[in-house]
Design a protein that fits this description.
alpha+beta, 72 strands, 70-stranded mixed beta sheet
């Protein structure tokens, strides 16, 4: 029977059954099982032998310490030592116990430790190790493990010298994610406990210990736990702590799950960073804060990782400069695809970093303010939700959110960020070693903000070319120029870039600029442009053969102008760079913005560039520019800058309202209308209209018009030719503002008018503009009469005509490089003149001069010299007629022939004039006058620039001066002058002080002869109303001396007289006055004239001798009034008040001695002031002998007449002496005399007459006597004297005749009117024994008296009875009887009343009564 076949091996068909092998026999099966069992037995035997051998080897391991040491030394090339080593077998697992193990480097000087283990007890799980093909330890314990690592020269770490760690301990390069996952699975299978583990890092300058007091790796069947802490140095705080839990999956550790949490203290780990990076350009210097890492594995794959970073401070040292980072915060997460693929995503959120260097890259972190600034921004750049977003964005240096994704299988990576600040991100270049990229960022200096960044990379870590795609949005972005590419911004742009086939990289920038955008292309345009708007596309590409940048569809709006065009820049790696630019310009304003800022000045010829920059401007309605250039570094700096075969420059400009200059300093052509065309180095142009109009201090100068001019430039020589028209003044302004060394300043002062037509020819070498040649050939006065004036000299030529040429040619010999020539005819000083201009002409004896010859009236040149106009005219007119009319006679007149030369040396202009004045009349007193036909040489030499001059009129006068000119700084040079009349020294010396010295020495001087011309000669400046002009005249005076041997006044010689005067400065700072001294027979003393003072005129005379002016003779004595009646009647018709007195300056008089009729009066003092209505003398003080009168006198206008008022008070003694001094008889004597007088009379003060006066008089006399003058009234007073009564009765009148009548007091007052003097109350005379009163009036016109006189005498026995009886016997008798009866009991006083009438020379005295 056959057994059934299992289903899995059941036949499938007949064919299969026929082809199946034959069935195995039972014996063969038995042999197979036997062989298998034999093999197993052999293996077990071998295993037992191996285990037994291993057990034996391990149990005897302590006996083979030397061989073990040699083996380890051979593997590590180091010395090995240990205390003990033991081995054992735990079942199948071998175990080793080791103590005192040391591994160190052999050295003659020092033994460097490498590894030491205090104790080790390790058991190898053989079965688990075989199963996982990796060592798995079970219950391994190690204590006192110390590993030493040393820093090598390249900065890496390891064991120094020949010893090297085992290969298992050597780094293997990059570690992949799979290796991390496999390593974590292997770590989870270990059962290890580590105690007192240290890692000793030996840096180049320091050593650092990392201590782990305990690290434990333990687990159960369902979980593995790893935990530990690491301390740095001697610190107690853990620098790092970690916890790892691993949970096996359904397949054990093949699909484990794990969780890791690690805490890092940045402050504790900062010393590790300093040690490990001390030789790097970027090194951790200081830190404060912490970081937390959390990771999760699922099915043995890393599925999720998260990061939390919070650092308060992080200081990095970059090449000696510190970067102080602060407030660093970040939250990150990495997620793997849950579907099992290798795709992943990651996020980095809430990223913020603050740093002083990121806020201000130029600030030094170690400065004094670093801490303050850090405090100021501390906490701002945090990720906290409480922080203001705007402030946080201002401090953030990196994007706040970064999203990444990729695929591990194909090496792809995609990055997307939020917006960020370009400048702050770029500032990381200052602290990071970015190499060439950092240099590029330094040059570009990006600014602005990115709205976002998208970057996609492919092929990372694979054997395929890496690909890249980039997109970037920008706002307000700016970059500086780099490698020939322009700098732009701020603008909005969309930037794309992508890798291309063949390994090239390319992209484009589509941009649109906002107002204020700047465009900087220094390789071409130099200065940056400020744009109103701009848009276009810039393409770029980089490959193995080079790079290229090109611009297309470019449109620019700039200050109302539009510019469109394109550019291209090729930068090959093995050839010169090539640049091409095409621009079309419209409505360009090259006046507001210089033309140099519109054109590619950097690529033009330097001399052409300078000319276009400085001298060409205007409005450009349209223009075109084409530029092709090769930028070859090998030819840079070479002198030959001509255009090569592949280079070209074509520039076409239409200019309106422009400006065309040609040489620095020369007036430009303005208002230009024309065209300019530049091809390479050749310029051609045409000017249809232009003008030259330089600016002066007073505004625009006269304009020269230029028409049909041509402009060309060949071999760097600029030429301008054309016709010019305008005025003579326009030519002078043009040349006066040119940079001419010899004539510009001179011509700037000249003035002209009238027509000018000329041809202009300009040649300017641009390499040396100082060699410019300018020629003007023309004619003046053809279409419009012309004038030529020399303001410096005050000379003007009218109605000029003739040729006028100018040449400036630096190629000519020195002194001939500037020439202004011409032969002109015209009028000068009112007469015909010929003038020859010879400025800079070498073949002329009058080089640098203008010569004149002509005939003219004398008055104009004298006015030019400063003579008073009132003296000029026809001197032959009747002088007496002028005097009769009150006008000033003309002093000079007629015409004269002259020759003159206006010298124009470098030191300044000078005029030399000569004439014989033959046809001139001078109508002045001798010796200055002359008649026509008499020749008197006149020589004039005047310095017009430096000041000074000399004028001589033969034998009559000479004047010379120096200074008076104005310096370049505007200050006037003080003038020093001398004027001599009639006589002068042969070799005069200049005075030490500035001002004019005037000296006139004459044998005889009659002021009355000079009176008609005095006002004109003094410029009418002596009145008080012209004090300013007078002050200026006096300020110019230094010293005045007039001396004569005979001063003639009223046709009489009053003797010698000398006057010396000098200016005087008032103490009140009221201006310059005049102080003078008089020394002569007529008067002596001082006088002062101070124009600005309240009383300008002050007279202080020692003596005034009226006898010298009016000497007494017999005729004058006989003519004096013979009696008082004649004196009273004396007088003239009243004098009207002259209005000219209003010009009389106020003043004062102090006269010490007045001599009159050989009598000396004085002193006299007075002050006066006047106006159009009044002349007031107040106060007035006159001393006559021993009596002084004080008061005032006023002379005032009274319509058709005038009126004088006097008010005087007199006080003194010796009235008799006063009468004698007044040439009157000595009629009265008194020890004390006082009088008050108030009088008024018509006319002037000198018109005084008692007959026409009115007023009041009051007299007081004490202790005096009335002298016997032979009058009846005097005798009467003497008769009533009781003491002399007996002598009167005996007809003895000797006391009356010899001594007069004495009195004690005289008191009285009277009113004067209509020629009558009427008492105001009785006049009382008190004598020693008599009192007399008078009351009545005196008729001064008729000389009669009408008075009543009362005499009071005492009754005594010596009463002059005869006199009483003769006058009134009844009264006298009655008084005598009464006296006898009553004696003393009656009044002893008796009054007798008389009537006095008749002529005052012989009055009638009658007795009226007695009491």
């Amino acid at each position: 029977m056959t057994r059934p076949i299992p289903d899995e091996v059941a036949p499938q068909g007949a064919d299969e059954l026929s082809s199946s092998p034959p069935k195995m026999s039972p014996s063969r099966k038995r042999r197979g099982w036997s062989a298998l069992l034999m093999a197993i037995a052999i293996l077990l035997t071998l295993l037992a032998v191996v285990i037994g051998g291993m057990r034996w080897w391990l149990t005897t391991l302590d006996a083979r310490e030397d061989s073990v040491s040699e083996f380890i030394a051979a593997q590590t090339n180091a010395n090995v030592g240990f205390s003990s080593i033991l081995g054992r077998m735990d079942y199948l697992d071998p175990a080793v116990m080791l103590s005192g193990f040391n591994l160190f480097r052999p050295s003659e000087m020092d033994a460097a430790p490498l590894l030491s283990i205090a104790s080790l007890d390790a058991r190898l799980d053989v079965l688990s190790s075989l199963r996982h093909l990796a060592p798995v330890f079970d219950r391994a314990t190690a204590t006192g493990v110390v590993l030493h690592l040393y820093q090598r020269e390249d900065g890496s770490w390891g064991w120094p010298g020949p010893p090297r760690p085992p290969e298992a301990l050597e780094p293997q390069g990059k570690i992949s994610l799979d290796e991390i996952e496999q390593g974590l699975a292997l770590l989870a299978r270990q059962r290890v406990r580590l105690e007192d583990v240290r890692l000793v890092l030996h840096g180049r300058n320091d050593t650092l210990n990392l201590n782990a007091a305990e690290m434990m790796l333990s687990g159960q069947d369902d979980r593995t736990h790893l935990e530990g802490q690491v301390r740095v140095g001697e610190t107690l705080q853990a620098g790092a702590s970690f916890v790892l839990d691993v949970v096996p999956g359904q397949q054990g550790l093949a699909d484990y799950s794990a969780q890791l949490q690690m805490e890092l203290d940045a402050g504790a780990l900062a010393s590790v960073g300093r040690l490990m990076g001390e030789r790097d350009s970027l090194m951790l210097s200081d830190a404060d804060g912490n970081a937390t890492l959390w990771a999760r594995w699922r099915k043995a794959r890393l599925e999720d990782a998260r990061l939390r970073l919070d650092l308060n401070r992080l200081t990095l040292d970059h090449d000696g400069a510190q970067l102080a980072l602060k407030n660093i915060h970040a939250r990150g997460q990495w997620l793997r695809d849950m579907g099992g693929s290798d795709r992943w995503q990651a996020w980095l959120n809430q990223l913020s970093i603050g740093a002083q260097q990121l806020d201000d890259p130029t600030a030094a972190p170690d400065t004094k303010n670093a801490g303050e600034k850090s405090e100021g921004v501390k906490g701002i750049a945090t990720a906290s939700e409480d922080v203001d977003e705007d402030i946080g964005a201002a401090i953030a240096s990196l994007p706040e959110r970064i999203a990444l994704s990729g695929d591990l299988s194909d090496g792809s990576l995609s990055l997307v960020t939020s917006g960020f600040d370009l400048e702050r991100v770029a500032r990381w270049r200052h602290v990071l070693a970015l190499g060439e990229l950092g240099d590029i960022l330094d040059t570009l200096s990006p600014r602005g903000s990115a709205t976002g960044l998208s970057l996609a990379l492919g092929g990372i870590g694979h054997d395929v070319p890496m690909t890249m795609r980039l997109a970037l949005g920008l706002e307000n972005a700016e970059v500086d120029p780099w490698e020939g590419a322009p700098g732009v911004g701020p603008l909005a742009a969309w930037v794309t870039a992508a890798s291309r086939d063949g390994g090239s990289l390319g992209g484009s920038v589509t941009f649109r600029g906002a107002p204020g955008m700047r465009f900087h292309f220094p390789e071409v345009f130099g200065d940056s442009w400020s744009l109103d708007a701009a848009d276009g596309v810039v393409d770029w590409q980089v490959d193995d053969v080079g790079s290229s940048i090109s611009g297309r569809d470019l449109h620019i709006q700039r200050h109302g102008a539009s510019v469109a065009g394109s550019f291209g820049l090729q930068i090959p790696t093995d050839d010169a760079d090539r640049f091409q630019l095409d621009l079309d310009m419209r409505d360009v304003d090259a006046l507001t913005i210089p033309l140099s800022q519109w054109l590619p000045m950097k690529v033009l010829d330097p001399s052409l560039t300078e000319w276009l920059t400085r001298d060409v401007a205007g409005r450009v309605p349209h223009g075109r520019l084409h530029l092709s250039q090769v930028w070859d570094e090998d030819s840079a700096g070479q002198e030959d800058e001509s255009y090569g075969p592949d280079e070209a420059l074509d520039l076409e400009l239409a200019i309106e309202g422009g400006r065309l200059g040609y040489a620095e300093g020369w007036p430009a052509l303005n208002g230009l209308k024309g065209e300019l065309a530049l091809h390479n180095d050749q310029l051609d142009g045409s000017v249809t209209a232009a003008h030259s109009q330089p600016m002066t201090s007073l505004g625009k100068a006269a304009a020269l018009s230029v028409t049909q001019a041509k402009v060309e430039m060949r071999d760097d020589v600029l030429g301008i030719t054309g016709d010019i028209t305008g005025s003579v003044q326009a030519l002078f302004d043009f040349l006066g503002h040119a940079p001419l060394e010899e004539t510009s300043e001179l011509l700037r002062e000249w003035q002209g008018s009238g027509s000018l037509s000329a041809a202009l020819d300009i040649r300017v070498p641009l390499e040396d503009a100082e060699q410019s040649r300018v020629a003007v050939k023309g004619k003046v006065g053809e279409s419009l009469p012309a004038t030529l004036a020399f303001p410096e000299s005050g000379i003007a030529i009218d109605s000029i005509r003739g040729p006028l040429n100018f040449l400036h040619d630096p190629a000519k010999p020195e002194g001939q490089q500037e020439q202004l020539t011409g032969t002109l005819t015209g009028k000068l000083f009112g007469g015909a003149v010929k003038a020859a201009l010879n400025i800079g002409q070498s073949d002329s004896l009058t080089k640098g001069a203008v010569t004149f010859s002509g005939r003219a009236p004398l008055a104009p040149p004298l006015e030019w010299l400063g003579a008073p106009a009132a003296l000029l005219g026809d001197a032959s007119q009747n002088t007496q007629q002028a005097l009769d009319t009150g006008s000033t006679p003309r002093a000079v007149g007629g015409e004269f022939n002259y020759q003159a030369r206006l010298m124009l040396p470098d030191s300044g202009a000078r005029l030399i004039l000569s004439s014989d004045l033959k046809d001139v009349a001078i109508n002045l007193p001798e010796p200055f006058g002359k008649a026509r036909g008499i020749a008197v040489p006149l020589a004039v030499d005047v310095g017009l620039a430096e000041g000074g001059g000399d004028i001589t009129l033969a034998n009559r006068a000479r004047a010379r001066w120096r200074g008076g000119n104005v310096r370049d700084d505007g200050q006037q040079v003080p003038m020093t002058g001398q004027l001599w009349l009639e006589r002068w020294p042969s070799q005069p010396q200049w005075p030490a002080r500035t001002g004019w010295d005037i000296a006139w020495r004459s044998p005889m001087l009659s002021p009355v002869q000079w009176k008609p011309w005095f006002g004109a000669l003094s410029n009418d400046s002596t009145s008080s109303q012209d004090s300013a002009a007078s002050g200026e005249s006096l300020r110019a005076l230094n010293h005045l001396r007039i001396a004569t041997d005979c001063l003639v006044i009223q046709a009489q010689c009053t003797g010698p007289m000398a006057l010396e005067a000098t200016p005087r400065q008032s103490s009140q700072q009221q201006g310059v006055g005049l102080g003078a001294t008089l020394d002569g027979q007529l008067a002596s003393g001082e006088m002062a004239w101070q124009p600005g003072a309240a009383r300008p005129l002050i007279l202080d005379l020692d003596t005034l001798n009226l006898d010298a002016l009016w000497p007494a003779d017999e005729g004058e004595v006989a003519a004096a009034p013979s009696n008082f009646t004649e004196a009273v009647a004396t007088g003239i018709e009243p004098t009207p008040y002259p209005t000219a007195l209003s010009d009389l300056p106020a003043g004062s008089l102090r006269l010490a001695h007045l001599i009159w009729r050989e009598q000396q009066l004085g002193p006299i003092s007075a002050e006066w002031q006047s106006d159009q209505k009044h002349l007031t003398v107040s106060p007035l003080s006159v001393t006559l002998g021993k009596i002084t009168a004080q008061g005032s006198v006023t002379w005032e206008d009274a319509g058709t007449n005038s009126l004088t008022r006097a008010r005087l008070s007199a006080d003194g003694s010796d009235v008799g002496d006063l009468l004698v001094r007044l040439s009157q008889p000595r009629g009265v004597e008194a020890e004390r005399a006082r009088a008050e007088v108030k009088l008024a009379w018509p006319g002037a003060p000198q018109d005084f007459a008692l007959s026409r006066s009115s007023g009041r008089l009051e007299v007081k006399l004490d202790n005096g006597r009335f002298m016997n003058l032979g009058s009846a009234s005097a005798r009467l007073l003497g008769l009533v004297n009781v003491d002399n009564l007996l002598r009167r009765l005996a007809l003895d009148f000797s006391d009356v005749t010899d001594k007069g009548t004495a009195f004690d007091k005289v008191r009285g007052a009277a009113t004067l009117y209509d020629g009558r003097l009427e008492n105001d109350g009785p006049l009382r005379i008190e004598a020693p024994s008599t009192t007399v009163t008078l009351n009545g009036q005196v008729d001064l016109l008729r000389g009669t008296l009408d008075q009543r006189m009362a005499i009071t005498v005492p009754v005594s026995q010596n009463l002059p009875l005869a006199a009483v009886l003769a006058g009134a016997p009844a009264v006298g008798g009655a008084l005598f009887v009464a006296d006898k009866i009553f004696g003393r009991f009656i009044d002893k006083v008796t009054q007798i009343h008389y009537r006095v009438t008749g002529p005052w020379g012989d009055p009638n005295i009658t007795l009226e009564s007695a009491e």
